[in-house]
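input
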Amino acid sequence: MLGGTTEARALAQDLVELPGVRVTTSLPVGREVPLAPPGELHRGGFGGAEGLAAWLVEHEVRAVVDATPPYSARITDAAVEACAASGVPLLLLERPAWLPQAGDDWRSVPDLDAAAELLAAGPWSRALVAGGGRSLGALARLSSPRLVLRLPRLPRPPLPPGCEIALRRRAGDVDGERALLADRDVGVVLTTDSGGPGGAAVLVAARELGLPVVVVRRPPAPPGASGAARATGPARASAWVRSTVAERPRALSG
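output
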């Protein structure tokens, strides 16, 4: 399992009970998770797609599940290439994207560069940045609007001049997000379409306060991903893994 999401942990919890099966979850260096997934852990990279392919062969892996966050495009690219090279079946466990609801004012942009341009050209004096990214990219160069960074962990430098940091301690807290937006006099929210109920709290709060939201769209799937299986939740992913292991009955490391 290429992990780092709550869905990855739920899937690992389910699969680790399978008799005769080893479940290994790979977590990037520096990736903090509230609870370590059950089973074996692999910390750090594999050396790109070639290194991952070699690891899959060496450990006799019978299935791979990419359950990384939606914006981990480089990891997904490597998984697609490695599985194609090693002949190991691949499943992409994808969170459903958020959908705007009545009362939402969303401005969709393709990436952080476009988001920075939109914020700089807008009338807002203060913007809240909500998401899980460790690198702010083009946002680090913004001098206006002033940014309030609402993130689960400290971002990597450089940071925007004069920015404020408000670390998110509890996901899904609509009341907390609403209070933060009001207390910091936020005029616009910037977020990535990460999916999941936890990150959606700020969208609900922005809707209630009538604030616009700049949403960074997900990157497109790599060209080779068209041949991979897909699931939108741990239950369907578990069914796929169980079926795949039954067809290829040896140790599983996913």
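quick obs: The radius of gyration is 20 Å.
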